[in-house]
């Protein structure tokens, strides 16, 4: 039986590495795209290409040569403050490159799975459904909304997976996330300030990768919210990490967002209702605490 071909962009990232491992494990013909040296732990049974997603000519050549059945776009500029300070660069990666992928998918009948974010919402409501109206309050959120609109206005087969605060234990300090940052800081006896007035439903990287696999296997069309099922403040998230790994929670100081003086605004309360993903994708609903216990 002929293998299904799949391109994974952003394959060196936290999610990208999970996707490469998962799709190789499930016997797909995997083509990993990312910048620089291949950072994936597994090195066999897939092809890696050192390519920048913004280089449309090179991406077009590779897609035309590979002729994939699916593209999973996990490449993005995600640093919220960097996006605010560099809107042109942000648009090149988060908008223009997505438009190029959409055109390639349209021309070659490729199904696009695109990763989006809770930051397309203003955070005034909390626990958003897929039909709630987006209203971004920072440039990162605006760029991701623009990319969604490009896809929605097209004629391609697509799956948009919005997610929140993706986490995993990683040792590379240059690519940190909420779990690795809190855990590593407390293990090193470092005091940390954590906000009490931002609320999220955090997402294990493995769970998001599995949602991508489900979308591909079922060829599901539409927008789906992917996250855990319990709304927590970032401070509560940090406390749960400390308790799970038996670390000193007294090193965690509660603060308000305004004390951070960040360049870009953050939505105060996002969080997702994930019923649609559970019902239509077969996504498993779990709490943050349940997922933390998997690491013990």
Descriptive account of the structure:
The protein is of the alpha/beta class. It has a domain of 188 residues: Rossmann fold (3-Layer(aba) Sandwich). The chain is 38% helix and 18% strand. The strands form 4 sheets. A 7-stranded parallel β-sheet has the order 3-2-1-4-5-6-11, sandwiched between helices. Helix 1 links the parallel strand 1 and strand 2. Helix 1 packs across helix 7, helix 4 packs parallel to helix 5 and helix 6 packs across helix 8. The model has no long low-confidence stretch (mean pLDDT 96).
Question: What is the structure about, briefly put?
Answer:
The protein has 296 residues and is an alpha/beta fold. The protein contains 10 helices and 13 strands. A 7-stranded parallel beta sheet has the order 3-2-1-4-5-6-11, with helices on both faces. The protein has a two-stranded parallel sheet with strand order 7-10. The protein has a two-stranded parallel sheet with strand order 8-13.
């Amino acid at each position: 039986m002929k293998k299904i071909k799949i391109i994974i962009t952003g394959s060196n990232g936290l999610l990208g590495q999970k996707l490469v491992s998962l799709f190789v494990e499930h016997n797909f013909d995997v083509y990993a795209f990312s910048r620089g040296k291949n950072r994936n732990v597994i090195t066999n049974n897939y092809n890696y290409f050192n390519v920048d997603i913004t280089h449309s000519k090179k991406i077009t050549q590779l897609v035309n040569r590979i002729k994939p059945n699916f593209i999973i776009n996990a490449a993005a500029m995600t640093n919220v403050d960097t996006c605010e300070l560099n809107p042109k660069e942000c648009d090149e990666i988060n908008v223009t490159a997505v438009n190029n992928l959409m055109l390639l998918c349209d021309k070659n009948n490729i199904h696009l799975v695109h990763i989006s974010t809770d930051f397309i919402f203003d955070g005034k409501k909390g626990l958003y459904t897929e039909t709630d109206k987006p209203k971004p309050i920072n440039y990162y959120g605006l760029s991701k909304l623009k990319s969604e609109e490009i896809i929605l206005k097209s004629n391609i087969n697509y799956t948009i997976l919005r997610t929140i605060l993706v986490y995993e234990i990683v040792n590379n300090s240059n690519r940190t996330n909420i779990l690795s940052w809190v855990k590593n800081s407390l293990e090193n006896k470092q005091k940390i300030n954590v906000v009490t007035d931002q609320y999220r439903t955090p997402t294990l990287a493995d769970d998001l990768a599995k949602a991508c696999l489900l979308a591909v296997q079922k060829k599901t069309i539409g927008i789906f919210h992917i996250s855990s099922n319990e709304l927590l403040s970032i401070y509560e998230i940090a406390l749960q990490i400390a308790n799970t790994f038996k670390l000193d929670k007294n090193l965690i100081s509660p603060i308000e967002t305004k004390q951070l003086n960040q360049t870009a605004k953050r939505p105060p309360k996002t969080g997702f209702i994930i019923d649609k993903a559970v019902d239509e994708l077969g996504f498993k609903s779990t709490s943050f605490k349940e997922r933390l216990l998997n690491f013990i």
